[in-house]
Specification:
Largest sheet: 7 strands, mixed
Number of strands: 17
Number of domains: 2
CATH superfamily of the largest domain: FAD/NAD(P)-binding domain
Strand content: 25-35%
Distance between the termini: 31 Å
CATH class of the largest domain: Alpha Beta
CATH topology of the largest domain: FAD/NAD(P)-binding domain
Order of helices and strands: EHEHEEEEEHEHEHEHEEEEEEHEH
Number of helices: 8
Bound molecules: flavin-adenine dinucleotide
Oligomer: single chain
Structural class: alpha/beta
CATH architecture of the largest domain: 3-Layer(bba) Sandwich
Helix content: 25-40%
Radius of gyration: 22 Å
Shape: elongated
Length: 307
C-alpha cells in the first residue's frame, strides 16, 4: 500500500475560516490540504451582511470568489470529503476520510464551524436563515421596525431581546414556557415596551419560509413579520474532542491567543472557537491561524524556500 500523501498542514473545514487559513499558508509556500464537506452554517440564508466589500452578497458567492483566489496558490489543494478520524503519528497526524482516503500532516487546523440545533417548533426549520434569524448585526437592518418576536429565555434571552430592541419598537419576547427572567429583568422589559408571552409556541405560520405569525398552545395567534431565536448548538465535527482538545463551558474549542488548542500542533478557528459569529471574524481568525501555524513550523525548522 502506498504511503499517504503528506502535507505541512491539513485544514479540516474549507469555508470562510478554513479558506482564510489556507490562503495565509499558501502565501507562506506551505503544502496544504483543505478537506471540506461543503456545509457552511449560513447556507440557508439568501444574503450575507456586515462583511466589508461583500455586504448583501450570497454566502455562496463570497465562498466562490474566495475559492477562486485561493486556488491561485499552487501548493494549496482542496478535496470535497468528510474527515472522520484523526490520530497522532511520529510525523504529526493522520486523517482518514469518509471516502476512505488517508492523508498525513505536520500540523492540523480545524475550521469546522458549529451546527445549530433547530427548535422543536413546526415551521422553525423552514424559516431558519430567512425570517427566523440568529443575529441582528447580520440581518437586523433589513427588518428594522418590523413586528418582531424573540424566542429566548433567562438572562441570555433578556440580554438578547434588549439588544434587538435597538432595531425595532414592536417587540415581543416569547419564553416558550415559564419565564426564567428575574423580576428585575421582567420589569426592565416592560419599561422598554417589550411584551413577554410565556405560553408555549406550537407552530410558526409562514409562506415559503417567510414568517406570518406564531401559533400558541392555547390557540392564540400572534402576528409577527420576523423572529429571532437563540438556538442551542453543537460542534459540527467531533474529531477535536476525540483528539482531546479542551472545550469551554459554552461548548467552544478552547484556544490561546495564537488559535492553538490544548493539543500540541492542533489549531482551530472560526465559529467553532468563538461566539462572535460572523464571516469577518471567521476570516480574521483563519488568517491569524495560518500565520501562527507557519511561524510554529518555521521555529521548528520546517522552512520552505521559494523556488
Ligand atoms: C442562518 C445564518 C445566517 C448568517 N448570516 C450571516 C451574515 O449575514 N453575516 C455574517 O457575517 N455572518 C453570518 N452568519 C454567520 C456565518 O455564517 C459564520 O460565522 C461563518 O459561516 C463561520 O465560518 P466558519 O468557516 O467558521 O464555519 P462554516 O462556514 O460553518 O464552515 C464550516 C465548514 O466545515 C465543514 N466541515 C465540518 N466538519 C467537517 C469534517 N469533519 N470534514 C470536512 N469538512 C467539515 C463544513 O461542511 C463547512 O463547510 C450566519 C449564520 C447563520 C447560521
Amino acid at each position: 500500500m502506498n504511503a499517504p500523501q503528506h502535507y505541512d498542514v491539513i485544514i479540516i473545514g474549507g469555508s470562510y475560516g478554513g479558506m482564510a487559513a489556507g490562503m495565509a499558508l499558501g502565501r507562506a509556500l506551505r503544502r496544504v490540504l483543505i478537506i471540506d464537506a461543503g456545509l457552511p452554517s449560513n447556507r440557508m440564508t439568501p444574503h450575507s451582511h456586515n462583511f466589508l466589500t461583500h455586504d448583501g452578497a450570497t454566502p455562496g458567492e463570497i465562498a466562490r470568489i474566495a475559492r477562486e483566489q485561493l486556488m491561485a496558490y499552487a501548493t494549496v489543494e482542496t478535496v470535497k470529503d468528510v474527515a472522520v478520524h484523526a490520530e497522532r503519528t511520529s510525523a504529526g497526524f493522520q486523517i482518514e476520510t469518509m471516502c476512505g482516503n488517508m492523508f498525513t500532516a505536520t500540523k492540523l487546523v480545524f475550521a469546522t464551524g458549529i451546527t445549530d440545533i433547530m427548535m422543536n417548533i413546526e415551521g422553525f426549520k423552514e424559516c431558519w436563515g430567512r425570517s427566523v434569524l440568529h443575529c441582528p448585526y447580520c440581518h437586523g437592518y433589513e427588518v428594522r421596525q418590523h413586528r418582531t418576536g424573540v424566542i429566548a429565555n433567562g438572562t441570555s434571552g433578556f440580554e438578547y431581546v434588549l439588544l434587538i430592541a435597538n432595531w425595532t419598537s414592536t417587540l415581543t419576547l416569547f419564553t416558550n414556557g415559564a419565564s426564567t427572567l428575574t423580576d428585575e429583568q421582567t420589569g426592565e422589559c416592560r419599561s422598554r415596551g417589550i411584551e413577554i408571552v410565556e405560553t408555549p409556541i406550537t407552530s410558526i405560520e409562514h409562506t415559503n419560509g417567510q414568517v406570518r405569525g406564531l401559533v400558541l398552545e392555547d390557540g392564540d395567534h400572534v402576528d409577527v413579520d420576523v423572529v429571532y431565536a437563540k438556538c442551542a448548538f453543537e460542534q459540527h465535527c467531533i474529531i477535536p474532542a476525540m483528539l482531546g482538545c479542551e472545550h469551554d463551558a459554552d461548548g467552544y474549542i478552547s484556544v490561546d491567543a495564537r488559535q492553538h488548542t490544548s493539543i500540541e500542533g492542533v489549531y482551530a478557528c472560526g465559529d467553532n472557537t468563538s461566539p462572535m459569529r460572523t464571516v469577518a471574524n471567521a476570516v480574521a481568525s483563519g488568517t491569524a491561524t495560518g500565520m501562527h501555524v507557519n511561524k510554529e513550523l518555521v521555529m521548528q525548522g520546517y522552512v520552505r524556500l521559494a523556488t
